[in-house]
Amino acid sequence: MKREYLTIIGTAHVSQDSVEEVKDAIYEQYPEVVAIELDKGRYERVMKEQSGIEDEEKISVSKIIKENKVGLFLASGILTYIQSKIGEDVDVKPGSEMIGAIEAANDVGARIALIDRDISITLQRALNEMSLLEKLKFMFSAVASLFASDDDLQDIEELKKQDNLDEIMEYFKEVSPSAYKVLVKERDAYLANSILNIEEDHVIAVVGAGHKEGINRYLDNPKEIPPIETLMNIKKKGGIPWIKVIIIAIPISFVVIFFLAFLNGIDIGDSLLEYVLIRGGAAFIGSVASGSKIQSAIVGFFAAPFTIVHPIVSSGWFSGLTEAKYRKVKKKDISNLGKISSLRDLWNNNIFRILLVVIGTNLAVSAATLIILPSRVFIPLFLQIFGG
Questions:
Q1: Residue 153's Cα: distance from chain center in Å?
Q2: Is residue 275 located within the same domain as residue 343?
Q3: Which of these three, 195, 210, 232, is where a domain ends?
C-alpha cells in the first residue's frame, strides 16, 4: 500500500450521507482494494442478510451460561440494539455504509479487505480490562441510551465533526478508560496494521469516524504499532484477583463456621434450616421476579444451598439452564434484538429472558448471602463458638 494513494473515509455507521460518500469515492477513484471495518464473522452475517439467508440453527444458551459468557453476550447484544435503534430512527440500517462499500467495490472490480479484529476478541479483552465500577458505569450509560429521545438522535452527521468526536471520545475515556483503550486505541492500531499489510497500491479504507485520526497517527508512526500478537491474546489482568478471593473466602468461612459449631456440640439444626430457606428462598424469588417459569425457580431453590460450596458454580446457572429447556432459542432471536421497539418486545425475547433469569437469581442469592445470612445465621453461630 502506498500512502499517497490511500484514502481513509470516516463514516457515521448509521448515516445515509456516509453511504453516499463511500460509494461516490469508490466510483470516482476506482481503487484496487476497498478495506472495510469488518471482521470475517460480521462480513459473513452482512452478506447473508443481503442475500435474504436466515440461519435457523439453535443457539447454545447453555454453553453461554456454563462458560460464564453471559456478560459478554449481553454487552454485545446491548451494543447491537443501540446501533440498530439509532439506524431505525434515521431510516438507515447499521453497517449500510459497509454494504455500500462492498457493492461499489464489486461494481469496479476492487478486492475487499477485511481489516477489523474479531469482535469476540475485542469485547472479551474490553471486559477483562474493565474494573467493576467501569462495567457498572458502562451498563448504566448503555441502558440510558435505550431511552434517548429523537432530539438526541437527529444530528448524527454532527458526530463526524472533529470537535464533536473529540468531546465524545473524552466522555468515553471518562466513563471507562479501560474500554476506551481496547475499543478505540487498540483497534486504531489493529486497523492501521491491517491497512499497511495490503499489498496493492491504491486503497480506499472505510472506517468509523472515531478511528480515522488514530489510524492516521499510527500510519505516520508505524513503529508505534504494538505487536499484533499482544492485541489478539485474551489474558486476564495480572495481580491478585481480590474480588474472586473474597467470593471464594465467604463460602469457605461459612462452611468452617458450621463445622466448628458442630465440633463444639452446638445444635446447628435450626441454623441449617434457616440457611436453606434464606438462600433457597432468595433464589426462588429472584428467579420468579426475573420472569422465569415456576419450574426454573424451584430448581434454583434446591440448588442454591449447595452452590455455596463451589463459588464458580452459581445458582443462576441451574435456573437459567432449566429456563432454556422451556424457551427454545434460535439465531433469529439475536437479529430480533435489533428490531425491538419497546420494553415489551425486549421482555418477549427468549435470549433476554433466559439470561435475565441467570442474573436475577444470582443477584438475589448474593444479596441474601452477603446481607441476610451473616446477621441471621453465621454471626450468632460465631458468637456461640467463641463465647461472645
A1: 22
A2: yes
A3: 232
CA-based radius of gyration for the chain: 25
pLDDT digits (tens, 9 = 90+) for 129-180: 777 777 666 666 655 655 555 454 444 445 444 444 444 555 667 767 877 8
Domain boundary residue among 208, 232, 256?
232
Dihedral angle of Cα 179, 184, 188, 190, to the nearest 10 degrees:
40
Residue 237, in any domain of the structure: no
What is the rounded distance in angstroms from the CA atom of residue 27 to the CA atom of residue 303? Answer: 62
Dig out the grid coordinates for 341 from the structure.
421497539
- Alpha carbons 157 and 154: distance in angstroms, whole number: 8
Query: What φ, ψ does residue 229 adopt, rounded to 5°?
Result: -60, -35
Q: pLDDT digits over 71-113, tens only?
A: 666 666 665 555 455 444 444 455 788 899 999 999 999 999 9
Amino acid at residue number 376: R
Dist CA 170 CA 148 (whole Å): 20
- Measure the CA–CA gap between 167 and 22, rounded to whole angstroms: 25
Instruction: Decide if 192 is inside a domain.
Output: yes
> CA of 312: how far to CAs of 10, 196, 315, in Å?
44, 43, 10
Using the structure block, give the residue that is written with the C-alpha cell 458505569. 137
Q: Specify whether 163 is located in the same domain as 273.
A: no
